[in-house]
Amino acid sequence: MLVISRKKSESFLIGNNIEIIVTDIGSDRVELGIKAPKGVPILRRELLETEKLNREAASSVPEKGTVEKLKKMFGGKG
Amino acid sequence: MESAAENKVLIHFPNGIYGFEGIKDFILLQEDENKVIWALQAADKDYPSLVVVDPFMVASGYSPALTSAQKSSLGNPEPEDLCYLSVMVIRRRLEDSVVNLKSPIVINARRRTGMQVILDENDYPVEYRPFHKQKCGGQETCS
């Protein structure tokens, strides 16, 4: 993985037409500006992961008795 | 959730949920008397049906923070009208099952509408393992 260091308001390019600009730096997060052609999808990673997890959840039908087992496993907390 | 006594409630999701944006109506079914485990099923068809759990019961210390935009999308509910549920992926080895704490399904119980939100202010994992001892991200300690 390429790691580059940038200061506030500095930027870098990906290919010819995508530019990422550091617009603000806080104590534990950075704010980025993205200039990209209209058709380029920009998604936060958590969103993709959430989509994937929802699909996995929908495709894994629990076996019979699973709820009973889970109930016991959650038992102390319920 | 106030309507839990009926154990079966129709919830409208104006934007669906992630990965199932086209499905706007789900039925929420109570699966156990402790109200930890629920099923969220498409109202008009068999698929998708998801197991969802009460995140506060599976991850102690869970304290999700909604942005004002998210609250507004939910119709600015009173805090007591908000209900949170987390999608669970049940794995073959049940101990490996995961719960999405980062993107809870949030329901406005008064209006019976819901949306799946991504919590920007909280460092919770998308794949939290409730049956493994672990920290649940940031300073928060869950179980």
Question: How does this model look, in words?
Answer:
- Chain A contains two helices and three strands, in the order βββαα.
- With 78 residues, chain A is an alpha+beta fold.
- A three-stranded antiparallel sheet of chain A has the order 1-2-3, with no helix packed on it.
- Chain B is mainly β and 143 residues long.
- Chain B has one domain: BH3618-like (Roll), CATH 2.30.290.
- In chain B, strands 1, 2, 3, 4, 5, 6, 7 and 8 form an eight-stranded antiparallel sheet that branches.
- In chain B, a hairpin with a 4-residue loop joins β7 (105-108) and β8 (113-116).
- The radius of gyration of chain B is 14 Å and the shape is globular.
- The mean pLDDT of chain B is 89.
- The chains are: A alpha+beta (78), B mainly beta (143).
- Chains A and B meet through α1 and α2 of A and β4 and β5 of B.
Can you give me a brief rundown of this structure?
The complex is a heterodimer of chains A (78) and B (143). Chain A is an alpha+beta fold and 78 residues long. Chain A contains 2 helices and 3 strands; from the N terminus they run E-E-E-H-H.
Show the helix and strand layout.
The complex is a heterodimer of chains A (78) and B (143).
Chain A: E1 11-14, E2 18-25, E3 30-35, H1 45-59, H2 66-74
Antiparallel strand pairs in A: 1-2, 2-3
Chain B: E1 8-12, E2 25-30, E3 37-42, E4 49-53, H1 55-58, H2 68-73, E5 82-89, E6 98-99, E7 105-108, E8 113-116
Antiparallel strand pairs in B: 1-2, 2-3, 3-4, 4-5, 5-6, 5-7, 7-8
Major sheet attributes of chain A = 3 strands, antiparallel
- Count of individual beta strands of chain B: 8
N-to-C span of chain A: 44 Å
Provide the CATH architecture of chain B.
Answer: Roll
User: What is the 3D shape of chain A?
Assistant: elongated
Could you name the CATH class of chain B? Mainly Beta
Tally of DSSP helical segments of chain B: 2
Spatial strand order of the main sheet of chain A: 1-2-3
CATH T-level topology of chain B:
BH3618-like
Q: What fraction, in percent, of the residue positions of chain B are helical?
A: under 10%
User: Based on helices, strands and strand pairing, what is the structural class of chain A?
Assistant: alpha+beta
Q: Biggest sheet of chain B: strands, sense, closure?
A: 8 strands, antiparallel
Order of helices and strands of chain A: EEEHH
Please, how many domains of chain A?
Answer: 1
Number of helices of chain A: 2
- Distance from first to last alpha carbon of chain B: 23 Å
Radius of gyration of chain B: 14 Å
